[in-house]
Design brief:
It is a single chain. By secondary structure, the protein is α+β, with helices and mostly antiparallel strands. The protein has one domain (2-79). 30% of the residues lie in helices and 31% in strands. The chain contains two helices and five strands, in the order E-E-H-E-H-E-E. Strands 3-5-4 form a three-stranded antiparallel beta sheet. A hairpin with a 7-residue loop joins strand 4 and strand 5. The chain starts with a strand and ends with a strand. This is HP0268 domain-containing protein. Residues 1-80 form the HP0268 domain. InterPro entries: HP0268. It comes from Campylobacter majalis. Pfam families: HP0268 (PF18618).
């Protein structure tokens, strides 16, 4: 599965990250916070949460709004 990371600047395209890279970062650091772009579907993020919960990890998922417009948001996923 490929997920899009949150954009650093509004006019740029989001970078992608694979599930394997996310898993290796979590294994290396023990916990990790990822910010994902709004172009990811809710279903993809739920699959990500379920993947790590099946491995016995705790996962917190929420929507972060950074502006007044309804379109100004990203997803935060904290994996412990």
């Amino acid at each position: 599965m490929e997920l899009k990371l949150a954009r650093a600047e509004l006019g740029t395209k989001p970078k992608t990250i694979s599930l394997d890279k996310i898993e290796s970062a979590v294994e290396k650091e023990g916990q990790k916070i990822f910010y994902f772009d709004k172009e990811n579907s809710h279903k993809q993020l739920i699959e990500l949460v379920e993947f790590f919960e099946e491995k016995g990890l705790s996962v917190y998922h929420r929507v972060v709004k950074y502006g007044l417009d309804e379109k100004d948001y990203m997803y935060e996923v904290h994996i412990l």
